[in-house]
C-alpha cells in the first residue's frame, strides 16, 4: 500500500492524521460514501478514542487573580433545607468558589468536618480563602479520582497522589505523611475543611475512607458551570467570549471540545446534540459543522463554532422562523455548547453514578440537596431520588399490568431509603433572578435519609 503523506503536519501527528484520513474514518467523508454503522447510542462516550491533549492550567484566569464576584445560587433555600439540623459533617461535591460551603459553616457551629470536591483546580485558592474566613482550617489534597480500595482492617494505605488514608473504621482522613496538621480531626475540635481535586463521583469513596459513610450529616451538589468558568475566555465554555474550544472542567482531562468538533463523525455530533443538547435542529447543525471543517479547516475557537451554528437575532439555519419567543430569545448556539460540554466532561454519567453512593453515605435524617440548571440534569436527579424513595419509574407503570405494577410498587416502597422532601423543585424568586440572571433556570431538589 502506498504510504500517505500529509504536508504541513508535524511528524508526531502524522499517524493520527493518516488514521483520520482513511475512508470511513475521515474527518471529511467522501461525497456519497456511506458512513460506518454506529455502535448502540447508549454506549459510553469514553469509547471514542481521540488524541490526548496536554494538561492545561487555568490559574491565570482565576486563582492568580483577586476573587471575582460570585453569587451562590438559591443560597437562602439551601440554608433553609438544613436549618435546625444537627450537621457534624458535610459534603460539598461542587465546591466552586466556596459560597454555599462557607454559608453552611457559618450557619452550623456544630460542623466539624467539611469534605469538598471540585475538578476545577483554578477555583481552589478562592474557595480556600472563603472557607478560612468562615473559620475553618483548610487543607488541599491531590486528585483522588483513581484511588485504590482501602483494606477493611486497621492501619493505613498509601494511594496515588501521596495521600495516606486511614481504614474506614479509624474515622479519620489523614494528611500526607509529612504534614500531620492536615489530618481531618474527630468532632470536638475546630472545623476542618478538606478540598479534594476530584469529581463528586469520587465523593462516596472519599467519604468511606474518611469514616463518614453512613454518618454524613448533609450533602450538596450545585451542578453546571460557575460564573468564573463562563467568564474566563480561555476555558472555552461561553460563545459570548472568544476563546479556544476547550470546555474541560479539569485542565488535565483527556478530551476537549476541539477534538469533538473536528474529529467526530456527523452521526456522532448529531447524537450528542440530540441527546445532550435536546437540540431540535441537530441534523442541520451537525452537517454544517462537518461541512465547515472540511471547507475551511479545523474549528478552533468558540466564535468559529458559534458562527457555524447561527447568529443571535435571527433563527439559525435549519430553524423555523416561526419559533417560539422563548426559543428566539436564546442564542442559537446555547444547546450546542451545552451538548459538547456534557460530552467532554461526562457530566450526566457521573451524576447518575454518584447519586446512589452519596445517598448511602447519609446518616438517618440527613439530607442531600442538588441544584440543577437544565432539564437533563433535573430529570436524572428526579428519577434517582424517586428510585431511592421506592417509587417506580413512570415507564414501568405504563407497560406493566395493573396487578403487577401494584406488587412492584409495594416491593419498591419496602426498599425505600429516603423520602423526597421537595415534590416540586424550589426555584429562584424574582428578586434573585434580577440580582443574578444566571440563576433563572436553577432548580433545587432534596431528599432525606430514612
UniProtKB/TrEMBL annotation:
BP term (GO), one: rRNA base methylation
Keyword annotations from UniProtKB, A to Z: Methyltransferase, S-adenosyl-L-methionine, Transferase
Natural source organism: Auxenochlorella protothecoides
Protein name: Ribosomal RNA small subunit methyltransferase H
Pfam families per record: Methyltransf_5
Family: Belongs to the methyltransferase superfamily. RsmH family.
SUPFAM superfamilies: Putative methyltransferase TM0872, insert domain (SSF81799), S-adenosyl-L-methionine-dependent methyltransferases (SSF53335)
Membrane-spanning intervals of the chain: none
Amino acid at each position: 500500500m502506498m504510504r500517505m503523506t500529509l504536508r504541513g503536519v508535524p511528524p508526531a501527528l502524522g499517524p493520527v492524521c493518516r488514521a483520520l484520513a482513511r475512508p470511513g474514518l475521515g474527518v471529511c467523508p467522501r461525497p456519497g460514501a456511506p458512513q460506518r454503522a454506529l455502535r448502540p447510542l447508549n454506549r459510553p462516550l469514553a469509547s471514542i478514542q481521540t488524541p490526548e491533549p496536554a494538561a492545561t492550567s487555568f490559574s491565570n484566569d482565576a486563582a492568580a487573580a483577586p476573587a471575582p464576584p460570585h453569587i451562590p445560587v438559591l443560597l437562602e433555600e439551601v440554608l433553609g433545607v438544613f436549618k435546625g439540623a444537627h450537621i457534624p459533617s458535610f459534603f460539598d461535591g461542587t465546591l466552586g468558589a466556596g459560597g454555599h460551603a462557607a454559608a453552611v459553616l457559618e450557619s452550623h457551629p456544630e460542623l466539624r468536618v467539611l469534605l469538598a470536591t471540585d475538578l476545577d483546580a483554578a477555583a481552589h485558592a478562592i474557595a480556600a480563602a472563603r472557607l478560612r474566613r468562615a473559620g475553618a482550617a483548610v487543607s488541599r489534597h491531590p486528585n483522588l479520582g483513581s484511588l485504590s480500595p482501602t483494606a477493611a482492617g486497621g492501619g493505613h494505605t498509601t494511594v496515588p497522589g501521596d495521600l495516606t488514608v486511614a481504614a474506614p473504621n479509624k474515622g479519620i482522613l489523614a494528611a500526607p505523611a509529612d504534614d500531620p496538621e492536615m489530618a481531618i480531626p474527630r468532632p470536638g475540635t475546630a472545623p476542618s475543611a478538606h478540598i479534594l481535586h476530584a469529581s463528586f463521583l469520587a465523593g462516596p469513596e472519599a467519604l468511606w475512607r474518611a469514616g463518614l459513610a453512613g454518618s454524613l450529616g448533609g450533602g450538596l451538589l450545585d451542578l453546571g458551570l460557575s460564573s468564573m468558568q463562563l467568564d474566563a475566555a480561555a476555558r472555552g465554555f461561553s460563545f459570548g467570549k472568544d476563546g479556544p474550544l476547550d470546555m474541560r472542567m479539569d485542565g488535565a482531562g483527556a478530551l476537549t471540545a476541539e477534538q469533538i468538533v473536528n474529529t467526530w463523525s456527523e452521526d456522532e455530533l448529531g447524537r450528542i446534540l440530540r441527546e445532550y443538547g435536546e437540540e431540535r435542529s441537530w441534523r442541520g447543525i451537525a452537517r454544517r459543522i462537518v461541512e465547515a471543517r472540511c471547507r475551511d479547516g479545523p474549528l478552533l475557537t468558540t466564535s468559529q463554532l458559534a458562527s457555524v451554528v447561527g447568529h443571535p437575532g435571527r433563527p439559525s439555519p435549519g430553524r423555523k422562523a416561526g419559533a417560539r419567543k422563548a426559543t428566539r430569545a436564546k442564542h442559537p448556539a446555547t444547546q450546542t455548547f451545552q451538548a459538547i460540554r456534557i460530552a467532554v466532561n461526562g457530566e450526566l454519567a457521573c451524576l447518575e453514578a454518584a447519586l446512589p453512593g452519596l445517598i448511602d453515605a447519609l446518616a438517618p435524617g440527613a439530607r442531600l440537596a442538588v441544584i440543577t440548571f437544565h432539564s437533563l440534569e433535573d430529570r436524572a436527579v428526579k428519577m434517582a431520588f424517586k428510585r431511592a424513595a421506592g417509587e417506580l419509574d413512570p415507564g414501568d407503570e405504563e407497560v406493566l399490568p395493573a396487578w403487577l405494577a401494584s406488587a412492584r410498587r409495594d416491593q419498591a416502597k419496602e426498599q425505600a431509603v429516603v423520602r423526597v422532601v421537595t415534590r416540586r423543585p424550589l426555584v429562584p424568586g424574582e428578586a434573585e433572578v434580577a440580582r443574578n440572571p444566571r440563576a433563572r433556570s436553577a432548580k433545587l431538589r432534596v431528599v432525606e435519609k430514612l
